[in-house]
User: Which sequence fits this backbone?
């Protein structure tokens, strides 16, 4: 079964850091681009970051550029998001999602909640 | 950056109704558009990509059309399991989402 499982969410103070991980199974992880998408409570979806299959290309939303770093380890089938200088507005459920050949996101994890609050 | 505007933001419909949701892009995006369905507490599910291609396993009552700046998602006969929020997404760089359309039971 193809599966993405996020972990690492939790409560962090403003200005703090958190590292999210996404473990992939049942798919050839190294063949696909991967993405992080977030959803603030009661709000819509916001794309956060993308990384190509070999990490050659990396993209960020303006809202997180300079604070978040996406990375992947194809040997371990894992995707990561290092989040620094966290703000209250970063509070959200964070999903990892696989990039389809059309560039749509065809497989999603269940999400991990990040709460930034003092 | 390309902005996507969905209409309506909220839709009340009955089982069996034909439902149409529109997504307008601030500039032309060819057919680089996807549609997702999200139910409360769940991850989004890909329905349609490249504007009109049905994702594997998605019921044929869902269809997509459009190109350039105007796109539509149509549900030909609304089923109880279709009550959810629907999002469009442009598939170019910085893959932004529309603000969502919530489909509720009338």
Assistant:
């Amino acid at each position: 079964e193809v599966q993405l499982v996020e972990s690492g969410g939790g409560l962090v103070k403003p200005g703090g850091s958190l590292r999210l991980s996404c473990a992939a199974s049942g798919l050839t992880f190294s063949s696909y681009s991967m993405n992080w998408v977030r959803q603030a409570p009661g709000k819509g979806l916001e794309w956060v970051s993308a990384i190509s299959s070999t990490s050659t290309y990396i993209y960020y939303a303006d809202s997180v550029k300079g604070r978040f770093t996406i990375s992947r380890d194809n040997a371990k089938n894992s995707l990561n998001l290092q989040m620094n200088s966290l703000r209250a507005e970063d509070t959200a459920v964070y999903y990892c999602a696989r990039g389809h050949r059309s560039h749509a996101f065809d497989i999603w994890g269940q999400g991990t909640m990040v709460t930034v609050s003092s | 950056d390309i902005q996507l505007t969905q209409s309506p933001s909220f839709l009340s419909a009955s089982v069996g109704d034909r439902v149409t949701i529109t997504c307008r892009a601030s500039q032309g995006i060819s057919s680089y558009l996807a549609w997702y369905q999200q139910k409360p507490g769940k991850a989004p599910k890909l329905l349609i990509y490249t504007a009109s291609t049905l994702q594997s396993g998605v019921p044929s009552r869902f269809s997509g059309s459009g190109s350039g700046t105007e796109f539509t998602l149509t549900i030909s006969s609304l089923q109880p399991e279709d009550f959810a929020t629907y999002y469009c997404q442009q598939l170019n760089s910085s893959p932004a989402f529309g603000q969502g359309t919530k489909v509720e039971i009338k």
